[in-house]
Amino acid sequence: MTNRQPDAPAARDAPIAMDAKEFREIGHRLVDDLADLLGGIAERPVARGEDPVAIREVLDAAASLPDEGIAAGPLLERATRLLIDHSLFNGHPRFFGYITAPAAPIGVLGDFLASAINANMGAWVLSPMASEIEGQTVRWISELIGYPSDCGGLLVSGGNVANFVCFYAARAAKAGVGIREAGTAEAGALRVYGSAETHTWIQKAADLSGMGTDAIRWVPTDGDQRMRVDELRCQVEEDLANGYKPFMVVGTGGSVSTGAIDPLPEIAACCREYDLWFHVDGAYGGFAAAVPESPDDLKALAEADSVAVDPHKWLYAPLEAGCALVRDPQHLRDAFSYHPPYYHFGVEATNYVDFGLQNSRGFRALKVWLALQQVGRTGYVTMMRDDIGLAQKVYMLAEEHPDLDAITTNLSITTFRYVPSDLRGREAESEVGEHLNALNKEIQLRMESEGEAFVSNAIIDGCYVLRACIVNFRTDREDVEALIPIIIRLGEAADGELRPAQLAIP
Ligand SMILES: *Cc1c(COP(=O)(O)O)cnc(C)c1O
Questions:
Q1: Ligand 1 probe mutation, 203, 281, 310, most atoms within 8 A of CB
Q2: What residue owns the CA closest to ligand 1's atom 3?
Q3: In angstroms, how far is CA 298 from the centroid of its own chain?
Q4: Cα(393)–Cα(48) distance, rounded to whole angstroms?
Q5: Does the Cβ of 199 fall within 6 Å of ligand 1?
């Protein structure tokens, strides 16, 4: 300690504090603004196509840190305006890009409540009710998808981290004793298997865990983007013969590009045979296992040692909410638990610090727990079924249109592309193929800047295709029907401008 005179104020006037009256007033105003935004979201553009320079100018991005504070009310109003006037709205009924769902309104309110309580979910003692709510949320998520509800699990930031958590559980369980102490060098050349369509989290996991991305075996897919289990078996056999140590197979339940579902029952059988950890990446599609008519291949996620799902996708939770489920909770402790001297928790309960990467943790579970009860299993099944039906509608509309090619439809993802009818049948010619790729890229970009609707893309067999993913409870038939004339109009305009002379209509 120094012998400096203490500056211990008798009564503090902390500039960050806010009395109840002010909090109520500016809070009500914010709620009013957000109610207007959500109520009128369909009338706004999905996106405004502003470039980074324009956005930085509106923000005054170069301004330096203020020395003195300003009043909270006007400050919050300015922030609200900036965001309402310059955002992309994934809550818009015509947003079909990537896999980004609108935020359930009850989840928005749940996040507000959660941050006001500010429970620290690392330890039960710091979050008694909140920790139990997280436990119930994890059980309900597993019940919803048909996974054993006595599994271990926790809420994390999203699909990437949910998959990471499962990856580390697999590694601790299968790499052999001592990997956490001795590291990967001692464990031998570990190998992890996933289809060529596996999401990029697997590269980050292999890299950051010290195995390196060469530890990943990318198993070829069939014509429907599904893992070829015969190829998986060959690769495992070959690796065993060469002294490598296979430890984990990742099956994808709804791939990010096309929604393809790997043959999970056959992967499960292969894992049993070779004593490998069977993980399912169900970040996008896992929840669709709750829909009774879903493919049995998807429902077989019930057999996995671990499953990653993403409530901020098909449960429409506001960002961020992912969830890792591990059949035997002990495997989570075996992968993550330490007992430092500064933690002494008296009660017998789950301390989530033992289950994952984080120490202090926020209360992500609340928004999910609220929505699960607001709509129930039936509500979710209906909403997912509607999303799937709308994606199939896009496929049919593309099939029927002379200038569109319907390519794939799985779960709620449909891929298709614009092919001017005079070039039909010539797609295999390299000049035509290149022009079609350029056209479809251009359609996507122009749609983004016009803001009437929003799609993203996929690459299938080298073709650049448009991709509509409907994970959006605000979308209805009129919205998907409106997509077709937009694409045709943009496609005709772009074709007129970009068509190379040698492809001109004779
Ligand atoms: C979205 C997705 C991820 C990544 O999830 P984030 O929530 O974006 O971190 C991983 N795998 C699949 C199959 C996905 O669809």
A1: 310
A2: 159
A3: 18
A4: 27
A5: yes
